[in-house]
Amino acid sequence: MSKPCCAIDVHTHVVPAHLPDQLAEFGDIAWPSIRHTDSCHAKVIIRGKNYRDIENACWDVPRRTTEMAGMDVGSQVLSPMPELLSYWLPPKPAQILARHINETIAEMVRAAPDRFHGLGMIPLQDMDLAIRELEYVIKSLGLSGVEIATNVNGVPLGHASLRPFFAAAASLGAAIFVHPLRPAGMDRLVGPANLEQVVAFPCETALAVASAITGGLMQHHPRLRIAFSHGGGAFGQVLPRLQHAWSSFAAVKAAVTEEPRLAARRMFYDTLVYDPTALRFLIDSFGLSQLMVGTDYPFTIMDRQPTVRVAALGLSDADADRLLFGNARRFLGLV
Amino acid sequence: MSKPCCAIDVHTHVVPAHLPDQLAEFGDIAWPSIRHTDSCHAKVIIRGKNYRDIENACWDVPRRTTEMAGMDVGSQVLSPMPELLSYWLPPKPAQILARHINETIAEMVRAAPDRFHGLGMIPLQDMDLAIRELEYVIKSLGLSGVEIATNVNGVPLGHASLRPFFAAAASLGAAIFVHPLRPAGMDRLVGPANLEQVVAFPCETALAVASAITGGLMQHHPRLRIAFSHGGGAFGQVLPRLQHAWSSFAAVKAAVTEEPRLAARRMFYDTLVYDPTALRFLIDSFGLSQLMVGTDYPFTIMDRQPTVRVAALGLSDADADRLLFGNARRFLGLV
Q1: pLDDT one digit per residue (tens) for chain A, 335 residues
Q2: Where is B291: in which H helix or E strand?
Q3: A214–B191: do the CB atoms touch at under 8 Å?
Q4: Prior bond to B260 cis, omega within 30?
Q5: Contacts across the A-B interface (CB distance below 8 Å)
Q6: How many Å apart are CA A220 and CA A160, to the nearest integer?
Q7: Cβ–Cβ of B237/A193 closer than 8 Å?
Q8: A34 in the Ramachandran plot: left (φ > 0), alpha (ψ -120 to 50) or beta?
Q9: Among A207, A242, A304, which would you mutate to test the B interface (most chain B Cβ atoms within 10 Å of its Cβ)?
Q10: If 0-12 CB within 10 Å is exposed, 13-18 middle and 19+ buried, where does residue B319 land?
Q11: CA B11, CA B19: separation in Å to the nearest integer?
Q12: Cβ distance B122 to B164 under 8 Å?
């Protein structure tokens, strides 16, 4: 058996215990705040509404290190709760919020540097500010990279307008973790509000991975290290259709100069799919070398048994180790 | 080996050789017309623009019966080219168009009744007209059912407003084949126009299957026979997340009273996924008993080797026969 104590969980989220008060000068914007209800519980309030009930696991280092041990996880990659990415804010307050969250994550990493790696956030609604904050995150805070969303106010991540950011990330050696946010297809849901993250998120992520491939992301930035959450969402099932279309449609082949199934294997994906058949499908689709443990800790939808799922695959020790931590170390730039 | 001569291809499309001229009384609407360029080729023109170049395989019975033999297909299920469903037309012209296409498909079935089964179309933008046309399709034309889209002008098929149609379909024993159309996520695509069907279609279909499950479609209409094209799109990868959420979120469990993985196995899916790993994933996700051969004949993206893919699975003769024709016969109501 492999060494579960060493598993790296690349998909865990942070909400700071406190956020700076909204500065009056910015007027009526969707600025988040934290309302503590007791010493262990709080609410994230946005525009006067409760966005989410959270626990101190979102910010508390001792609780996280205790709980990760109970999940057979050796270290967590910290990233902001995606709603905090706040691409809809004006650039200046977005930059202030990003800086506060980046400092919070850096502080958590400093408190237990053998248990945490950090991914910050950047105001991608303003390319200059975004690249400046990315440089601060990497050079001054020493974090591993940043989390970004699958789209920036509707612009998919494969769009040419985002290339300056990816060029900077590749140049700085920043790892990029992509998480769904404000997904496409909200008008296609029938049922409770949770279906946004349950149903629309994997489709949104599939569209984002596809846009990365059809936009030639890895060809423009061959050294980029980019990972998609939730196993790339539903992209695994889009890939064979894209591959077939690449062989069938001259227009697709002309636009997409790298074979899709090869391009897909140059990016990373987490294992957060909750099911052995689905996990095996990821391995077959993207290659074992591109997959890393992810759990969504500490939110309700989290996978509490990530290493049990890996063990159930019946892999060799060497392959299990790659899934548990080896691939994550490559993604994070540690090897 | 199984009997490939008996394979039923449930996913093939028809465009009539001629469409009635737009009646002047309807004004400026997106009424399609067929412009023949030679005896074998034509263009579908909508609002003065070329929607698609087509060949006489879209309507020519002898060509279809010859070509299906070359694909090891014994019979085809005929359904309209999805763009013809025309939910965006005013109800009256939509009904006229539907009637013409339904008569065309019925005529093709009558020309070779041992080689064709027919699915008609209905103007779902008007529930009364839709149910009346459905009754005509089943009772007067003797077709097997109808093709519908994944959404009706943005309303997902699991929405309560569509229940009268599904109730009528269940009552009439009409088979329902669901095809993506006007998909969600168009603003997330980067690349040529074909990506609408290549990338957005499978995500749109995933959203539609999810809406059927979260909307309780099979619980409201337990006798309904419904099939989703393209293997249910990317829904196979959404299902384990929906299943996990059903166990984790009280709101999801309260709204979705049947376990998603069981609900998914009460519906049918075609095998049009172009890849052995993806096909095996469908079998594992939905059950072999729910899958049927589909090819998208006669369009460019079609799968030319449907039975070769089934043979490559190494199934028992009995299971291969179920995939090749047995399940389709159940879906069509022939057994």
Answers
A1: 444 468 999 999 999 999 998 777 888 899 999 999 999 999 999 999 999 999 999 999 999 999 999 999 999 999 999 999 999 999 999 999 999 999 999 999 999 999 999 999 999 999 999 999 999 999 999 999 999 999 999 999 999 999 999 999 999 999 999 999 999 999 999 999 999 999 999 999 999 999 999 999 999 999 999 999 999 999 999 999 999 999 999 999 999 999 999 999 999 999 999 999 999 999 999 999 999 999 999 999 999 999 999 999 999 999 999 999 999 999 999 99
A2: strand B291-292
A3: yes
A4: no
A5: 229
A6: 10
A7: no
A8: beta
A9: A207
A10: middle
A11: 22
A12: no
How far is the C-alpha of B110 from the C-alpha of A221, rounded, in Å? Answer: 58
ipTM: 0.97
Q: What are the φ/ψ torsions at residue B76 (nearest 5 degrees)?
A: -115, 145
Pairing of strands A116-120, A145-149: parallel
Backbone angles phi, psi at B199, to 5 degrees: -105, -45
Yes or no, beta carbons of B249 and A214 under 8 Å apart: no
Which residue from A64, A275, A142 is spatially nearest to B241, judged by alpha carbons? A275
Residues 6+ apart with CB under 8 A from A112: A61, A65
